[in-house]
């Protein structure tokens, strides 16, 4: 999806919310475990309940992969459902893949062609030839890890070379790659103060921001420091929305949480004059 | 597998060869495409033909994942076959996974429990909490990317902080992680001269060395600079072995290439007094 097509969706919904589908069978309402495909049943209910408040959905691949072939069948069903029912929603396979050229090609083919996702999260450690195969798809995106929101982020992402931190170097260098206009970046919201420096390096790129909600990031801070003239933000919430209730009312509870975030987002978009 | 158990296998076979299963349906002998499961048929033939010369097999997940659910079924079959027929061989899922704690848990569960592999390759960018869940399994290993053999390795892995390169920092810092005795490292063979500096940081760890053969690394150089008192090396060859012939004699041709490497390895193990 081009930045402008995504911005169009953001304006239409007055939302830059991405709902993360980190589906843990130990946390979903117990009555769903009796359905034929609990992963899909839960995902479908959450998608149907929240789609009007969200512009993107982000299935977390580990939570499908952990169930082997059955899990991949569920992921395939989720993607088929999304592409059929909600073709205007931006879909992100949160897979954090990263491998050399001829292997990266295969991952790109898997996600973009076999499953029909719009974007894949990708790890930067192996450099350019691990990412460019994803950027070769004209209407697809790669979302490169820059600054993550976890504790371990500090182990390597702040490695400093001539005044530049590694995550800043990742942003800087990746801008020169073939197809870089289709790059987006993962930027952890718990480091909202870093967003200003990030925006200096990639003023125009979309940033996928996890860590708002359960991980403690503030939507107001992220928006203040990260929003650009075409919004440029996708703020993800997973647990805060999908596990808002673990009872039979879970879908309504998820919708209420998503709506709360969308309402706040709408106000920020209005202040910025974007809707 | 413990280092000493792996060393025992290396001595028994007089080999530290890992056969990489990067199975490209466009490169396998055409007559196999008519079988019910070409990925599995090819893998089985290669495994049967080369197992006596190798201590490890490394399926590359991208080449299975790219075929969706069918590809995962094939991977499951390959792992079941390996675990049943060749339980003493060390199996490596070359998946390069890396994500935050609760997600990393799921990946570890998938590979170690669902598929029964011995080791998974893991990316370091997200730090400690992306790797430790893999190290929590007492009889399993995580193989952390340090220095890779691809062109893009130079983009970030040589980032220099106070005289230390990023890949050296990855080695250094990861040594302090919980379960670090179960860590191994990916070290690209095309940088054989770097092996000496790597051995200073991780003298005892096993190194998985890709890039010998098709990618131009020299087995003699790698061995000279990387071997330790319990061998400490797994040298991988994928394309050089599995595509030695693309005709009906492919299995014999693969066996011949594997044997050639094993014979050379045996001579180095003898010189080192390890067999």
Short structural description:
The structure is a homodimer of 275-residue chains. Chain A is of the alpha/beta class and 275 residues long. Chain A has a single domain, classed as Alpha-Beta Barrel (TIM Barrel).
Set down the secondary structure blueprint.
Two copies of one chain form a homodimer.
Chain A: H1 3-13, E1 17-21, H2 38-50, E2 56-59, H3 62-65, H4 68-85, E3 90-97, H5 101-114, E4 119-122, H6 128-135, E5 141-147, H7 153-156, E6 160-161, E7 164-165, H8 166-174, E8 183-187, H9 195-201, E9 207-209, H10 219-226, E10 233-237, H11 239-242, H12 250-271
Parallel strand pairs in A: 1-2, 1-10, 2-3, 3-4, 4-5, 5-8, 8-9, 9-10
Antiparallel strand pairs in A: 6-7
Helix pairs in contact in A: 2-4, 2-12, 5-6
Helix content of chain A: 40-55%
Question: How many distinct helices of chain A?
Answer: 12
CATH superfamily of chain A: Aldolase class I
* Main sheet: strand order of chain A: 1-2-3-4-5-8-9-10
CATH class of chain A: Alpha Beta
Gross geometry of chain A: globular
Question: Could you list the spans of chain A in which at least 5 consecutive residues all have pLDDT below 50?
Answer: none
- Most extensive interface: A-B, 58 and 58 residues
N-end to C-end Cα span of chain A: 20 Å
